[in-house]
Sequence to fold (276 residues):
Amino acid sequence: MEDFEKRIQAVHDNLSHWMTPEVLKACLSMTDLTTLKSTDTYSSVRKLVGKVNDFQTHFPGYQPPASICVYPNFARTVKETLTVPGVHVTVVAGCFPASQSFLKVKELECRMAVEEGADEVDIVLALNSFLDGNLSYCEKEIRSIRNIVGDAVLKVILETGALADAGRIREASFLAMECGADFIKTSTGKMEPAATPFAAIVMCDCIREYYGKTGRKVGFKPAGGISTAKDAAVYYAIVDTILGPDWLNPSLLRFGASRVANSILSEVEKSSVIYF
Fold:
């Protein structure tokens, strides 16, 4: 743990290197702009997508967010409303956030989400099996959903706050990657703690090790509690330090957040911005 504390402190000590307009704009372009509220409606989702459509008209020096992340029933709404090329339709599926259901139910939800227009699917590791030591079931579930979503990007949420220690986070990271995850993601954002620099370092170490063994690049997505430009810069710095510049793009780094975009805009523009 002492080694992790030193590595985290080193990031904070040198954070000014990454707290630049260029880096923060890059972070915004790697954001999965998220709305996952029980009060989401079709009209509120269309309104959010409309803001993404108009974003570069209001902020011409920026790239739009990488994707819009919603519940599965809104996938078609996002797809049909979205007009910006290159912005993806992300859904949380597989009985998010608890993942407490039957595999067939999870499979059906993921299949329907892709049929409705999602090209990225975020699922939650079956913690009920993982914490019981039933890793073979976890593998079966991820491989099955990997097959169902086809060419869609698959992100596996580890819920690192429930795993707590580095050993379990490593085990879950490798399990997800070996079963075909395109990204490993820290958290649902529905429990505490959510994303932490500690978990990020462990996961990025695993991604680097996995890449060294297989030659396959797996992406990293911190999510949950990332609300400020400084938060985004910290995770960007961790990825830059451990994985290097090849990972500093939307195909390999995403931020799951609902509030960070406004904070980044405010930091770069040096005035309070509430756009999203």
